[in-house]
Each structure stands twice: as structure tokens, then as C-alpha cells.
């Protein structure tokens, strides 16, 4: 196994609840109503897609850049107090590091959001960090994971990816990586080159190495 690559939101940290609060706040400002069925449409997607979706569902005539500012401000305010890590997340990061395996963080969030989250979970866990600011195409396009494996100089086929969203799984699979899906808001089915587990507590280094073998 050449490397292990982790998604962030909903996988390492419990930020989907925070995103829901912020999205609800923004859509209310736009004159609409936000529910879980709307959030599910955006899980693991890009910043631009989220803004476009909110504009389409509300019909508001507001500049996309302003909506982006509202989202960013709301997240930064809430993340300033820290974020809850998902069960088993820190333990798995330490276990992979103890094996001497390189680790990457690959997220569709902007770097400023990732930086806020890393204040809680620790930047020191990651050899490489890839955010939405570092790529042209975000998940489900393979570019985020191909960028990370390129920076690590490793073979994607010999890398394990942990993801919580269908978009993230699609990105990792298209990049040629082996995938462990830990669904958060949207169900994910097992498939060739992919296993599905209920929690990171069900993942250890032996399981990840087994994917490559």
C-alpha cells in the first residue's frame, strides 16, 4: 500500500450538521426553505454547485459571489469553536502513520475551511493536503485524487481512499484507487474495488492493505 487518502467533511469530522445549519441560514436569506433532501443533493459536491443549486431552488436574484461569502462566513464562525471528530478517525490516522504509510487529505471544501478544521484534528497527520483551491475540477472528477497521488509520487491503484459520499467515491474510483466507503447522509452500495462499512471504527490498517492485495 503506497498511501492512504482521506476525505474530510462527514468522514473525519462531523461537519455535515454544521453545513446544514449554514445552508439553511443562507437559503432563508434567499427566501427559501432548506431540508435534508436538499442537503443530500450537495454532499461531497463542489462549492460552485452548492451556490448554483441554492439559486435555482429559490429563484433569488443574488450574485453567486455574495452567496459564497455568506456560506464561508457562516462556516468560519461555527468552526472557530472547533469541530467534532468522527468515531475512530484520530485512531485510524495514528495507526496508518505508525505503519509509515503516507497520508493525504483530499477535500472539496475551500482551503480556508480545511484550515479551520485542521486546527482541531491536526495538520501534522497529513503529508499532502488537496482542497478545492488546488484543482480545476472537484469531486466527482478524478482530479482531486490524481493530484494527491501525483504529489505523493504514488500509484493510485496501490492507494486506499476513505470516503463518505457518492461524489467522493466516484472521484476516487475514477482515479483508480481502492475505496472504503463510510456513508454519512447518502447510502453507498458495495462494488468491485469498494467495500462499505458503518464507521471508521470498523477500519484498520490490515483491512486497507487487504484492499490492495
TrEMBL record:
Question: Pfam families given for it?
Answer: HAD_2
Name the InterPro entries for this protein: HAD-like_sf (IPR036412), HAD-SF_hydro_IA (IPR006439), HAD_2 (IPR041492), HAD_sf (IPR023214), PGP-like_dom2 (IPR023198)
Entry-linked CDD domains: HAD_BPGM-like (cd07505)
PANTHER family found in the cross-reference section: 2-DEOXYGLUCOSE-6-PHOSPHATE PHOSPHATASE 2, PSEUDOURIDINE-5'-PHOSPHATASE
**Record NCBIfam families:** HAD-SF-IA-v3
Q: Can you say what this protein is called?
A: HAD family phosphatase
Name the species this protein comes from.
Answer: Microtetraspora glauca
Amino acid at each position: 500500500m503506497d498511501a492512504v487518502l482521506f476525505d474530510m467533511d462527514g468522514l473525519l469530522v462531523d461537519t455535515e450538521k454544521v453545513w446544514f445549519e449554514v445552508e439553511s441560514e443562507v437559503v432563508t436569506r434567499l427566501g427559501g426553505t432548506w431540508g435534508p433532501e436538499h442537503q443530500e443533493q450537495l454532499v461531497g459536491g463542489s462549492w460552485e454547485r452548492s451556490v448554483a443549486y441554492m439559486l435555482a431552488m429559490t429563484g433569488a436574484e443574488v450574485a453567486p459571489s455574495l452567496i459564497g461569502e455568506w456560506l464561508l462566513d457562516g462556516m468560519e464562525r461555527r468552526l472557530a469553536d472547533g469541530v467534532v471528530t468522527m468515531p475512530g478517525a484520530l485512531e485510524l490516522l495514528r495507526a496508518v502513520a505508525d505503519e509509515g504509510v503516507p497520508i493525504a487529505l483530499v477535500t472539496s471544501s475551500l482551503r480556508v475551511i480545511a484550515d479551520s478544521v485542521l486546527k482541531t484534528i491536526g495538520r501534522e497527520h497529513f503529508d499532502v493536503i488537496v482542497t478545492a483551491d488546488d484543482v480545476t475540477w472537484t469531486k466527482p472528477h478524478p482530479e482531486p485524487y490524481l493530484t494527491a497521488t501525483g504529489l505523493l509520487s504514488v500509484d493510485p491503484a496501490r492507494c486506499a481512499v476513505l470516503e463518505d459520499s457518492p461524489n467522493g467515491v466516484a472521484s476516487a474510483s475514477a482515479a483508480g484507487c481502492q475505496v472504503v466507503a463510510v456513508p454519512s447522509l447518502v447510502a453507498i452500495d458495495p462494488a468491485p474495488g469498494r467495500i462499505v462499512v458503518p464507521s471508521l471504527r470498523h477500519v484498520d490498517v490490515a483491512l486497507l492493505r487487504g484492499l490492495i492485495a
